[in-house]
Amino acid sequence: MKYRTFGRSGLRVSEAFLGTMTFGEDWGWGASAEDCQKMVTAYAEAGGNVIDTANNYTDGASERIVGELVESERDHFVLSTKYTLSLDGADPNASGNHRKSLTRSLEQSLRRLRTDYIDILWVHIWDAHTPVEETMRALDDAVRMGKVLYIGISDAPAWVVSRANTLAESRGLTAFTGVQLPYSLVQRDIERELLPMADALSLSVAAWSPLAGGVLSGKFTRSETAEPTRKNPADISERDLRVAREVDAVADGLGVSSSEVALAWTRAHRPWVHPILGARRPDQLTTNLAALDLRLPEEALRRLDEVSAIEPGFPHDFIESSREFVYGPVSRDVVGRTD
């Protein structure tokens, strides 16, 4: 396992993060405490140091299990958790990005994780009802108190993240260092705005669902690997299955698993993208960890890029199609610094 600095900070984080949404059996489909321990051990032995959880994963069981498992080696791990999602459906202030929600959730997470501080605290999703100024100030207060070291945001529009960091920088507040986003061969829409934004602002990207809920693991395209799943096969589009079959074909040609190919692709073009490895069983995690040693050949990347390609959409396609009209025929001879 290699390491990269997290965004513009000096924090060293491993190539892949360990996702723990599956830790705990409270939701009826997660991993047992014994399997959770095996997965944390396997991940740590592979060199991984970032464990990602959230205040509401398996109704808080995930944080409790993680806290118990890493307590003796707390300083070795980069603990990452989130707030925003409701802790009490009957209480309107038990969710959201406002200061009261942050304070309540953070205190509970600290207790469950058995720690005095959170390494990375993520805003779990954009809350349109809370001014971004309030969120950034409340997060900065948590950092200044020493309860949080770095902050990030998950599942928010690019303009929200950009505005938040601009406000933070202009007011001397702590800015977001990373973003957490869904990214896989069947869900590439963050390439339109969010990934260019992350590149421009030097934000690290934690990619959730890099296997698209198991679609890219071969679970739905290889009959011999079929197993019970939370994902309804009827919800999988023909386009997604076509992409998954191409992943299978590339994997067969390389003599590796479909999961390894899909995970390797998420890092192939942008090394600052860190796939979040989630698993219900230790053997699944072992397979996923093997992807970190896989470098896809150019021909394999071309095939995967082509089969999963998306339309850039407005304004990107309009700007590209208007290039000669705007700049004249000489534009064909102009090469930019990044071309």
TrEMBL record:
Sorted alphabetically, the keyword list is: Oxidoreductase
Q: Name one GO cellular component term.
A: cytosol
Q: Which Gene3D superfamilies match?
A: NADP-dependent oxidoreductase domain
Q: Which CDD domains match?
A: AKR_AKR9A_9B
Cross-referenced InterPro entries: AKR_Detox_Biosynth (IPR050523), NAD(P)_OxRdtase_dom_sf (IPR036812), NADP_OxRdtase_dom (IPR023210)
In alphabetical order, the GO MF annotations are:
oxidoreductase activity
Give all residue intervals belonging to the NADP-dependent oxidoreductase domain. Answer: 18-308
Q: What is this protein called?
A: Aryl-alcohol dehydrogenase-like predicted oxidoreductase
Question: What organism is this sequence from?
Answer: Actinoallomurus bryophytorum
